[in-house]
Amino acid sequence: MGIFILYKTILSSGILMLSLLVAMYSTLIERKIAGFFQDRLGPDRAGPWGLLQPMADGIKLFFKEEFMPNTADKFLYILGPSLTMLIALLTSAAIPWGGNLVIGGKEYPLQVADINIGILYIFAIVSIGVYGIMIGGWASNNKYALLGAIRASSQMISYELAMSLAIISVVMMTGSLSLKDIVAQQHGLNWNVWYQPVAFLIFLVCAFAECNRSPFDLPECETELVGGYHTEYSSMKLGFYLFAEYINMFISAAVMATLFFGGYNFPFMDKLALSPNAMAVIGFFVLFTKITFFGFVFMWVRWTLPRFRYDQLMRLGWKVMIPLAILNVVITGIVILIN
Amino acid sequence: MMFTKYIFFFLSILALYSALMVLMSRKPIHSVLYLTLTFFAIAGHYVLLNAQFLAVVHVIVYAGAIMVLFLFTVMLLNLNKEEVSPKPVWIKIVVIIAGGTLMIVMIGIFRGYDVALKEDPFLTQIGLVKNLGRVLYKDYLLPFELSSILFLTAMVGAVLLGKKEQI
Amino acid sequence: MQLISGRSVVVSNKKMTFWEKIYLPAVLNGMRITFSHLFRKKATIRYPEVKREFAEIYRGQHVLKRDEEGRERCTACGLCAVACPAEAITMIAAERKPGEESLYREEKYASVYEINMLRCIFCGLCEEACPKEAIFLTKRIVPSDFERDGFIYGKDKLVEPLDPLKRIDVSKRETKEVLEFKKDKSKRHNQ
User: Fold this and answer.
1) Residues of B in contact with A120 (CB under 8 A)
2) Helices (H), A45-142
3) Which residues of C touch A305 (CB under 8 A)?
4) How many CA atoms does the CB half-sphere of A300 hold within 13 Å?
5) φ/ψ of residue C60, rounded to 5
6) Could you tell me if B152 lies within 8 Å of chain A, comparing CB atoms?
7) Does the interface ipTM go beyond 0.85?
8) Do chains B and C touch (3 or more CB pairs under 8 A)?
9) How much is the average pLDDT of C130-135?
10) Global model pTM greater than 0.80
11) CA-nearest residue of chain B to A149?
12) pLDDT per residue as tens digits for the range C100-125
């Protein structure tokens, strides 16, 4: 029991550190990629290839003036960014990061919590993710911030539905809500994306909307709302909001890889005939490669597509994505019934 | 087991406190947020009863969807102004009588009902997806389907109300 | 109506086809285009290490030239101030005292000569207007400052140094046409 708790503590703090590190460096990668897409070089002055840029940004944020509007709701104003950060970090607990490690004849899964309703857990976290933004936007007592918060909440509620409907078809195929089972079933190259391309597409689009990433970044839409929900925020509180966005991106890339691209599975994994420990380590790096790819896709789309208009966003969510997802569920059901 | 008991007491106190604060806080937004906290505490109770599915669905539906809509509406209504006109005394008396009656009825129900537990509540299996699904789709299929029809009707009604043109 | 550029396109409200309506091909095409930019040559010039070439006749900060003997050429005629479209130049004329012949070439000189660099648009009209070949625009860039006052350049910043080695070379600005012009004896007011 003691070893078990120790192992879980190490694992969860490791994953926490990993998420933070990845989020830190995604800010650099995002700016680098933006630069390259626009025929620029991106930041490359802090350290070799700009590798110390995230540190510089972090230090800068820490030393910025802490500003709080005097009409703000003090407690909620501080609660907003903290809640956003907390919720962003919660999701990674249910994702299986690799196979089982075997140490001294005992199995140690590379997953913090193998809950039998893993997907629903992720959904619950995603659905409460909007609170941080709403509370922060409202507590600022600023029109732009409130508008941003309202946009964020309606957008997230709308796209949550299509997202969950898209996942239902995956769950129907697998017959389990546990992420571990879903990954285990996609052994080798038997990935869900081959069977559920439409569901994957819907999930991808909804993930963009849930992370408030371009082309759905209406909550912070600079051209209309100054800074959206974080207009009144400064210093590390703003940093938390921006940081949480990158963590969310990392986690949704991980969920995408887990649900549709086989998680830590890779083709010809049976032919390697390695020990379980080696397989777990390789599996982790395979999953990480997939996550990196999806992170790149997030940034790629951001620097390609212009922002949606608000009515277009709502129309896409309610009139295209949800009916398409329902149709997908029905077709999946019929195919399962026939087989 | 002691540990779970402590968590139980913590969650219960949290739930009661935040439920009281829903009524007592001055700003409507705070009330809504306290209500959300109550829901989270109750979800924690579900987890203690080994009903993760119920807990998660509770969070998704209540905290994630309904309370967000509440918050949304309250934010738009701008109810920050203090309530100026206090309620008349007779309304207060009526409310106290109604609430008290409800409490007496509840106490009566629980006194008459044998609440002795047959098994350890922390180890029960009823809240797991499989058992819950079996119960819902076998024993209570008709009420389940009827309630879904009720939801459908409500949705159609909402759409009708939301339409601009007269029908 | 005759279109001037001949490039305008009439807006058509034609029905989109199915493939256009689902937008995905267009989105993917856009992503292909941005991806191809990853491998393009970058336009960035890495400034402190690599400096961008200036044009030979770049118009930067002004200089008030001295002649070969180190005397100020400017005679405060005010033609530059008149020519200036941004009204950035002001000056106060003064009379040369006996004994100052080594400082000023003509009997009249500018005791105060100021250019407001925030107003200046670096058009070069002052240079064109100057009958005494006194004011020139150079390749130097006007440095940034924290105060607005710092951008009003007086004679201390504008007149070139007396030291012959530190003179500012404007020979590049003297193009063939200028040199031709100078050869015309009837217009040799400069010498």
Assistant:
1) 53, 56-57, 60
2) 53-63, 74-90, 118-128, 130-139
3) 27, 30
4) 18
5) -115, -140
6) no
7) no
8) no
9) 84
10) no
11) B72
12) 888 888 888 888 999 999 999 998 88
Are C142 and C151 in contact by the 8 Å Cβ rule? The answer is yes
B79 has pLDDT over 60: no
* CATH architecture for the domain at C62-173: 2-Layer Sandwich (3.30)
Contact list in A for residue B56 (CB cut-off 8 A) is 117, 120-121, 123-124
Domain boundaries in chain C?
62-173
Lowest-pLDDT range of A109-113, A156-160, C177-181:
C177-181
Across A52-56, A237-241, B126-130, B161-165, least confident range = B126-130
Min Cα separation C20/chain A (Å): 15
- Structure tokens, A194: 């081959």
Per DSSP bridges, beta strands A106-109 and C62-64 are unpaired
Q: What is the mean pLDDT of chain C?
A: 83
Q: Is C76 left (phi over 0), alpha (psi -120 to 50) or beta?
A: left
pLDDT of residue B102: 92
Residue A298: closest CA among chain C residues belongs to which residue? C31
Label residue A208 exposed, middle or buried (CB < 10 Å: 0-12, 13-18, 19+). buried
Q: Which domains does chain B have, with CATH numbers?
A: 2-80+122-127 (1.20.120.1200), 128-167 (no CATH)
Q: Which residues of A touch C43 (CB under 8 A)?
A: 39-40
* Interface test mutation site (partner B, options A117, A121, A142, max chain B beta carbons within 10 A): A117
Provide mean pLDDT across the span B87-91. 81
pLDDT (average), residues C128-150: 87
